[in-house]
Design brief:
78 residues, mainly alpha
Length: 78
């Protein structure tokens, strides 16, 4: 499984890409019927909403700094 920090980074990049694409989406759908424009915009909004929810879930799942559970504490010397 990928590290949580890497997954968070990927989801953040994806979310930025989706949000920055909205003006381009509006240009791409301008020649469609009003119903199809609305459908495309609703789909984009749902995708952004799901991506934000995934990011929030990953941020909650992320271990706090300094409390890495995967690190094994050092053994005391004899």
């Amino acid at each position: 499984m990928l590290p949580t920090a890497y997954r968070i980074d990927r989801v953040q990049k994806t979310l930025r890409w989706f949000e920055e694409d909205i003006p381009l989406l509006n240009m791409r759908v301008k020649d469609l019927s009003a119903e199809r424009q609305r459908s495309a915009r609703q789909f984009a909004a749902a995708l952004i909403s799901q991506t934000r929810a995934e990011l929030e879930r990953l941020l909650e799942e992320q271990p706090e700094a300094g409390s890495e559970s995967s690190e094994v504490p050092c053994e005391p010397a004899d």
